[in-house]
Amino acid sequence: MNNIYGLDIWGNSNFIIEDGKICLNTDFKLPIIDVVKEIRKDGIKGPILLRFPHLIKKQIVEIYSNFNRAKKEFDYSGNFSAVYPLKVNQYPGFVKNLVEIGKPFNYGLEAGSKPELLLAMAYNNFEAPITVNGFKDKELINIGFIAAEMGHDITLTIEGLSELESIIKTSKERFSTCPKIGLRIRLHTSGSGIWAKSGGMDSKFGLTATELIEAVNLLKSANLLHKFTMIHFHIGSQINEIHPLKKALTEAGNIYAELRKMDAKNLTAINLGGGLAVEYSQTRELATRNYTLKEYANDVIFLLKTIANSKNVTEPDIFIESGRFVAASHAVLTAPVLELFSKEYAEEKLISKDENPPLVLELYDLYKNIKPSNALEYLHDSIAHMESILTLFDLGYADLTDRSNAEILTHLIMKKAISMLGNKQSYTDLLKIQKQVQEKYLVNFSMFQSLPDFWGLKQHFPIMPLEKLDERATRSASIWDITCDSDGEINFDPNINPLFLHDIDPQEENYFLAFFLVGAYQEVLGMNHNLFTHPTEATVYLKENGGFEIKNILESQSVLDILEDMDYDVYEIQDILSDRVKNSILLDDNEKKQILGELYLFLNDNGYLKSIG
Ligand SMILES: *Cc1c(COP(=O)(O)O)cnc(C)c1O
């Protein structure tokens, strides 16, 4: 198997393999392992989340340049604007960079809650648009008015008529400035894929045709119709196929034209929401996205132009709110392998007995005499023998030493066979065996914290080692995290999406895995299961001359901080621990002093494993 780990499928030319290392695909090919080593030099261990602002920029530029190109190509007269939906990643290490990068494009922010809106009001580039979606109470609407009064270009998109009534009421109570108003439309078209719950007639959101007419009438009688500027829809996240989007666009374009005809003269914009997909797959067969951004932009512009022209209305301004597409690629989680579960199976651990069962002796023979010409046959035999020994053990005819010897020998035979067979045997046969000998790699990270969508939705994220990419990876792997939850495993089916890793001894060498495309949704959805918190993060800025600079290293929270977040009284905890040490009858004064010092250090350090990784 060629060890590029599907980089040509999911990598979007962001990374490149050079000298066996995965590197940034910039002029200066920076190996990611160099960054990790640099950060760890100062004693930081455990998982590290790396942010690459140049990859945020790449996505933003790609969106604007594709839409602007399509506008030119189709001679489209409406404007194009984009906002970033904060719910996708609200971490300052991401948002502040994004806002800065987005400045020349007038890139705005989208908010779906009070804290997100207040965040947008503080950080948004002042001239850039703010859109507000999601359910709103009177308070949230009030905050929206404050934003408009501060001078922000803000559009409150209402999800239901009661919100509109609230806006009308608020406008009578407050100062003269009123935010722009958007109406979320309920489409009969819905998205596709595992997130497709935001569109469609049974969707949680949006106004029906009847409600739209009522909304326009309400606005008219409140003298606010001139504030109605936008219609909005969002057919779901990770839209893998372009077809539902086209249907939604056609429907929205017609609604736009109809509403314009109802005297909504300032209705000039259609907001398409988010949903641009990211390709996460590491195997061609499992790739899901069936379109490119170029095609997406062309379809949007062409369809809206066609509808506007045929209905004789102004070509609408276009807003998009893509989040996943902008955020996913900027973050890479790196984590050290702590252990290979089968490393116990070494020849020196064999315990010889005066009388060994024939099956164990036969296994020993297989192990001694295996060679490339018989490797497959011996491998099959050893697996059969192993199964027989386990049966004998259950029946009481083999003891624990016999079982241990058989397990060691079988593993050693498997290992030898795999390295001897290499690519020579027929692929399927080897894969079958690989499946039976899958190695468990224990990795210093929490899946619940760092890949929650794998836990919740079985969303796959590309995984590969940072180094050794010029050496053949021989072990079919599954990944185990350090939570003590049996769900904390990422399984790979060798027949569908195999993951092969290297046969290493973590005691002897550091071996890092990287998890890619984790910049969208994973961070804030992450759970503190077992009290593992957000990993240490760092931002990597590339310099003109090819060097790099690591900034904003934020170490993973300390144990005391975690407990404080959970509303424990951390002073009480420290007092109790210290009293219990002081009152221990097992310790003398010196020992007590030492233990108190140790406890202090542990409480102020983070909770990830330290020993090796
Ligand atoms: C979640 C959401 C988005 C972002 O969706 P992506 O799939 O991340 O692009 C955009 N608009 C609205 C209204 C949303 O709820």
Automatic annotation (TrEMBL):
Residues 62-328 form the Orn/DAP/Arg decarboxylase 2 N-terminal domain. GO terms for molecular function: arginine decarboxylase activity; metal ion binding. Residues 354-425 form the Arginine decarboxylase helical bundle domain. It holds the Pfam family Orn_Arg_deC_N. The active site is at 484 (proton donor). It comes from the Bacteria. Transmembrane segments: none annotated. NCBIfam families: PRK05354.1, speA. This is Arginine decarboxylase. The lineage of its organism: Bacteria, Pseudomonadati, Campylobacterota, Epsilonproteobacteria, Campylobacterales.
